[in-house]
Amino acid sequence: MLLTVSILALLGVVASALSSRMGRFVFLLPAAASIGAAIWFGMQGPAVAAGAVLQERVEWMPALDIAIDLRLGALQWLLAMVVLGVGGLIFVYCAWYFESKTLASRTVGLLTGFAASMLLLVLSDDLIVLLVGWELTTVFSYLLVGLNHRSASNRRAAQTALIVTTIGGLTMLVGVMLLESETGTFSLAATLEAVPQTGAAAWAAALMVVGALSKSAIVPFQYWLPGAMAAPTPVSAFLHAAAMVKAGIFLIAALSPAFVELPWWRWGLVGLGIITMLLGAVRAMRQLDIKVLLAHGTVSQLGLLVTVLGIGTHASMQAGLTLLAAHAVFKAALFMVVGVVDKATGTRDLRELGGLARRMPLAAGAAILAAASMAGIPPALGFLGKEAALDAALGDADGGLMAIGWLAFIGIAVGAALTVAYSLRFVMGVFFGRLVTEPKRRSRALVVAPVLLALLGLVAGFGGDLISALLEPQVDAVPAGEDAPHLALWHGFTPALISSMVAWLLGALLHRSIGGRRRAPHGQDPLERGYHAGMRALDRLAVEVTGRIQTGSLPMHLTTILLVTVAFPGIALLLSGALTSDVRLFDSPGQVATAVIVSIAAVAVTTTRGRLKAFMLLSVVGYGVALLFLLHGAPDLALTQALAETVFLVILVLVLRRLPKYFTNRPLRAARYLRAMLGIAVGTFGALAALAALQARTGEPISDGFYRWAYEFGHGENIVNVTLVDIRAWDTLGEVSVVLAAATGVASLIFVRRPTAGTPRQTQSATGRRTWLRGAFTSEQLASPVLEMMTRLLFPVMMTLSIYLLAVGHNEPGGGFAGGLVAGIALAVRYLAGGGQELLEAVPFDAGKLLGGGMAVVVLSVIWPVLIGGRIGESYAIEATLPLLGEQKLVTTVFFDIGVWLIVIGAMLDFVRSLGAGIDLHSEQNVAPRPQWRSDRSLPGEGVRR
Amino acid sequence: MTPTLILAIAGGVLIAAGVYLLLERSLMRILAGVMLAGNGINLLFLVSSGPAGTAPIVGEDPEAIADPLPQAMVLTAIVISLATSAFLLAMSYRSFQLEGHDEVADDVEDAIVRRRAEADLSSEAYVDTSSDSDSESGGRADSELGGRPERETGSRAEDEEAR
């Protein structure tokens, strides 16, 4: 069984690829697989009929008690035969149906995948796996209905089908979870053995039934099925007639032994079934498109199935399953006939069809046989089933369930009459009467499958005893009713036969009186209208909610976030009592002085209108914080902060030269006070939270072990650096990714269209000026010989310092970040001395190479230990005695640090090159912004293309 | 453990000033706000790590060193702040280049949604699924897919494309 599912699934994956070589005959692959599997399943029939249950089990998620547990009982056997047998013939039919290669290749994979998931659905005993199959069929149905995605109406039909069945599927999922919470197992068989008689279990059953009804297009979900006829005809035959829509029926049949005695079960199912049956039949009478006519017929027949199964006795289970098989056979045959007619004449409109019986005798024969089965005319299988159904309803009426039995009986009889009428409408309208459209082409191969199925429906009618025997284990599972009589064509003049005959007569009369009408159907199903109104209301609600809460103003959004931060965690903080007065005022006098200066500078920033002044004050804050770091005992932080502050100052000045002198002023004074109040609130909250975090601490800090680990595992003495490159290397990996992204972002904001690589090299020194630098300014006005000379001397020193910091970082303050920043400052100096040209001399390639290379080094250094059998991120120390340097220890995490170093240098290069040389270029091209004199505005760059 | 009050106050002041600037519309002032608040938060990291100590380097007294873990976090935060500040700076420049100012305007898409909400309209992406029910009306039919003739040519065009 598992093998069949796997083979079909595999075929589904490869078939589309193979179709380029095999053309449309690729369909014969799944056809052969299905028919072969159907034969194997057929051979299991006798064993299954004897009550044996075949099981195969593969563990999937043992921790959650979820397994791929396939279980073949009588019910599963019947469904599997439908999926594989009918499906196999449909695959054969497809090979001659699809002509265009594109469509064939697209369809074959989806259709085969559908067959696999449908088989998984019916065979799975694990309800979760069953649901997986269930949802997979929904998805495949969506893709197949929307196969022609160019047509808007097809897309809409596909979407409706998807949404309706998915809502059902999700409801069912809730039901399954609820049931599991009662039974403690996901196994269907185990659930059925010991059904908990609780309210929760009843609710679970109801939720699962909702899922079943939506899948099988029962009122109030019936409207998606006619729309799904947008799919190609073989797809409709397989999914929307034979197999997928039977999934709900299957579930009801599987659950009914357990839940049939629930008070609402019989009433609900019989009631909804009859409504669906009559509604579908009446609407089928009005259709002009023969495919849509059959679709409404399918809705009606599914209603019949639910009605019969809903009666919930031995006899009704037997009748329902017989009808299920009969319907799969005749409806698939009828759809395929529609495909044949459609291919031959190019139309499916009843007004343009008629009299085809002489031209297409085989198709007509198949249609007549199949329609006879549908209408319940002896000796077809459909007759057998319908008689049994009427009998079961009556038997029920006698056996104590009076009202339901009579209701079902009358419903089925009226439904039968209507079925006769629309069957006649179909057969007479297409094959008899005046010939309207001459068939243009005929394909004999196309007729094979429907003829075979139609014959099967006829022959099976004589096999009543056999069918009864095969279904017995499932029939006996139902706890109610007397033993079901064996199916037979002749029972004598029973009330069932009499009512059948009345139904034929009424149906024929109905067809005579209104069957000839050819008016286009109008008006829409109120339920369908309700669905669309619901979808529209949902969309409107989304618009209203979004329009109200998402105003699009950045300050407003931030205010909301900050207010929530202060209000909820803030109140929780005050109420929790975590705050105590246990504080130390300060650690050292220097700390107090620095903190005061920093605070004053910060407040001053807020009131400053001058751009440069504000950022100078900001630098005071930055360097002050560096000092506070140092005083706290964090030399690494102090070093990095000071370097970062310096780099920022440089690039800030590079940008400020093209910006207006003053900030834009916000005119509203009231808003300013509100902002100040919010700021104070957030600041207070932050400070209190930090105090409370330490005061409320009860556990030992996790960093207590770092002292030991740093040396033992990280082989380094600088604990902060070892933390970065080893203990918490994943964090650092994420953080350098941010740096990389930001650097790339800066470059792309400045060099909007052109790559960041340098400008073409100019020939050296037109004036013949002797310079200290190869790429120095050629113009005497720009050049500063002193700066050039200083740069010439400083650059090597700074680069050496950078490498030194990188090298010692593992044991002393320093590391890749600090080293990279020093290199960045060195590059900035080169730029200041000689402009973009000099920068190009320093690094004659794109910064992206440094960034990408650094990232590669970082990632490789994290994962390489795996290659030698270590763990990801493991570090090793190699000790060696080198000449001159003495005994040295190389720790492998140094490569990680080198990667970080490269990324930081790359980022710095990007910053200086973009904000320095890039803006220079803008100025030359006259696209830089032009600040107004003593103003907060500038003119946009001239000729900037957006 | 006992936190240090003066550091917490300094951190709080920096955050307050930062938030005040953050609620501006000028990108440059927002940038200043982000940087101030970032520095403030870095200080609060130190507060929550306990008292000042000696540098966390093996060889110092293990009892006297400052907590290294918050330091590692703050260190990467510093570099990330620098990178994002540079990015904001470039954005502000670009804004000046295009508009002549760097004020963050209200989001246009959000304004459209708001207008649609006021006019009681559905969203732009909404497709009315009920308007067309051509599958219900007479089957002007098809060879391979239910629907219109245009799709046959469509699939042929796609065939061409595939080759």
UniProtKB/TrEMBL annotation, chain B:
- From what organism does this protein derive? Agrococcus baldri
**Phosphoprotein among the record's keywords?**
no
- Its name, as the record gives it, is Multisubunit sodium/proton antiporter, MrpC subunit
Tell me the membrane topology, using the record's own terms. Answer: Multi-pass membrane protein
Matching Pfam families: Oxidored_q2 (PF00420)
Spans annotated as Disordered = 120-163
Intracellular or extracellular location(s): Cell membrane
Query: Which protein family is named in the record?
Result: Belongs to the CPA3 antiporters (TC 2.A.63) subunit C family.
Name the residues that span the membrane. Answer: 6-23, 30-52, 72-91
InterPro entries in UniProt: CPA3_antiporter_subunitC (IPR050601), NUOK/Mnh_C1-like (IPR039428)
Keywords from UniProt, A to Z, are: Cell membrane, Membrane, Transmembrane, Transmembrane helix
Which stretches are tagged as biased composition: Basic and acidic residues?
A: 137-163
Gene3D superfamilies, A to Z? 1.10.287.3510
Q: Lineage of this protein's species?
A: Bacteria, Bacillati, Actinomycetota, Actinomycetes, Micrococcales
Q: What's a single GO CC term here?
A: plasma membrane
